[in-house]
């Protein structure tokens, strides 16, 4: 019997039947996977839909006015994304309107800068000849150069104020004048021109300081601040402007 059972293929059919039954039910996993995806689709279908996703105007789509600021645009975008979260089409529509408004704002700022430069250039070209000749002596150096020289003359001013009780600022004024002439000579490559501009700036600043300082109310000044000290502070300003912006 044992031999017959091993040689007879009909007795091995239960295992084969199981395999065949699995092969015959090969469509069941697909149906089970569809059953797994069904709740996700139902969840997306239950999400609220943005009602203005077909509106062409980005301002109307986000529900803001044309004079809205960038803060209002950001606030509207964040509010709508939070309200219609979970609906992919609605989120894409809101983001598309938001990006379009940001690009429009950037282009407007760029045009404003270009128009401002064009207007300034046009004003200079339409100005009288003496104004144009005067502007030919003025230049705008790099920002780091401006700050370095501003720090130098501010240091001279602070040094003069700290030593106001001991003596006058004659030494500090001389150092400032020498620095101004050095910077001008490095720029113009003409020592005579540098001396002329430096001495002219010092004289102009000293005269303006002598006129303006007496107009300052006395209660704003320290007792140790003399007329000479305050006049030298004004002269430092003129020296800084001369060696930085004149050419």
UniProtKB/TrEMBL annotation:
<keyword id="KW-1133">Transmembrane helix</keyword>
<keyword id="KW-0812">Transmembrane</keyword>
<keyword id="KW-0472">Membrane</keyword>
<dbReference type="Pfam" id="PF11833">
    <property type="entry name" value="CPP1-like"/>
</dbReference>
<feature type="transmembrane region" description="Helical">
    <location>
        <begin position="229"/>
        <end position="246"/>
    </location>
</feature>
<feature type="transmembrane region" description="Helical">
    <location>
        <begin position="196"/>
        <end position="217"/>
    </location>
</feature>
<dbReference type="InterPro" id="IPR021788">
    <property type="entry name" value="CPP1-like"/>
</dbReference>
<feature type="transmembrane region" description="Helical">
    <location>
        <begin position="168"/>
        <end position="184"/>
    </location>
</feature>
<protein>
    <recommendedName>
        <fullName>Protein CHAPERONE-LIKE PROTEIN OF POR1, chloroplastic</fullName>
    </recommendedName>
</protein>
